[in-house]
């Protein structure tokens, strides 16, 4: 059944243990969502998260999904769509990496790029085609403000998110008018397990705040969502700073 005003009945999460995605699932289950697929690498954590959402009243299923195994995406995701129409796909997988280590170890850097960009392109296209076939639904992709302009401190991660962001925008344009809604979400620093141990920064946010912004964006049929919203003018200013000035900033 078609999603109504940002309140999907069915949800597929790619990256089933993502704290942002799970916070989003909780909000949507409280409103209208009753079927949830958690796609991720088989683990105790994935099963625990599924059980938690079942406790909220949802019919939750898990599916083995590996972002790096692009050759399996069509078969794995095709089976999920074959079970019935999906109102919302939330692409939420990604790795932050360790900038200092990854600069020394090119294979580690390549793994970040393959996960955050290549895997997302593959899975995103498979889901987009299935959504277009069913004639409705939303694809929400978690990008990052880090992709707006590469910073010395995390340019490997940032460059992968820049590619993902550009891909998502182009995909949204390609699907415009087909009944499929594509939304890119650009959070700032989110306080999660992935960022544990890192220094907090101004305009930091939480998984719950990102989930709220996603829900509002779905209701408004937004194409781009910044979290928090104040980051939009900040990043616009930083993007246009002369490079000689930008590289001297303590970021």
Automatic annotation (TrEMBL):
Highest taxon in the source lineage: Bacteria
Coiled-coil features, chain-numbered ranges: none
Assigned EC number: 1.1.1.333
GO molecular function: oxidoreductase activity
PROSITE patterns noted in UniProt: ADH_SHORT
Key words, A-Z: Oxidoreductase
Xref: NCBIfam families: PRK07904.1
Family: Belongs to the short-chain dehydrogenases/reductases (SDR) family.
PANTHER family: 5-KETO-D-GLUCONATE 5-REDUCTASE, DECAPRENYLPHOSPHORYL-2-KETO-BETA-D-ERYTHRO-PENTOSE REDUCTASE
Protein name: Decaprenylphospho-beta-D-erythro-pentofuranosid-2-ulose 2-reductase
Organism of derivation: Streptomyces kaempferi
């Amino acid at each position: 059944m078609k999603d109504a005003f940002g309140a999907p009945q069915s949800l597929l999460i790619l990256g089933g243990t993502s704290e942002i995605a799970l916070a989003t699932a909780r909000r949507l289950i409280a409103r209208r969502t009753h079927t949830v697929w958690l796609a991720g690498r088989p683990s105790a954590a994935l099963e625990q998260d599924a059980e938690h959402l079942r406790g909220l009243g949802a019919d939750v299923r898990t599916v083995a999904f590996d972002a790096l195994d692009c050759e399996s995406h069509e078969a794995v995701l095709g089976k999920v769509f074959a079970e019935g129409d999906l109102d919302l796909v939330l692409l939420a997988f990604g790795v932050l990496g360790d900038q200092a280590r990854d600069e020394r170890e090119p294979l580690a850097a390549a793994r970040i790029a393959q996960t955050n960009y290549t895997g997302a392109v593959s899975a995103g296209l498979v889901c987009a085609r299935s959504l277009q076939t069913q004639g409705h639904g939303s694809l929400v992709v978690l990008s990052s403000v880090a992709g707006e302009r590469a910073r010395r401190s995390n340019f490997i991660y940032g460059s992968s998110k820049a590619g993902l962001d550009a891909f998502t925008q182009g995909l949204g344009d390609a699907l415009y008018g087909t009944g499929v809604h594509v939304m890119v979400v650009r959070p700032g620093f989110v306080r999660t397990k992935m960022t544990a141990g890192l220094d907090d920064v101004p305009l930091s946010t939480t998984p719950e705040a990102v989930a709220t912004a996603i829900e509002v964006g779905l209701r408004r049929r937004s194409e781009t969502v910044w979290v928090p919203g104040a980051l939009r003018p900040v990043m616009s200013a930083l993007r246009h700073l002369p490079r000689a000035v930008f590289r001297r900033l303590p970021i």
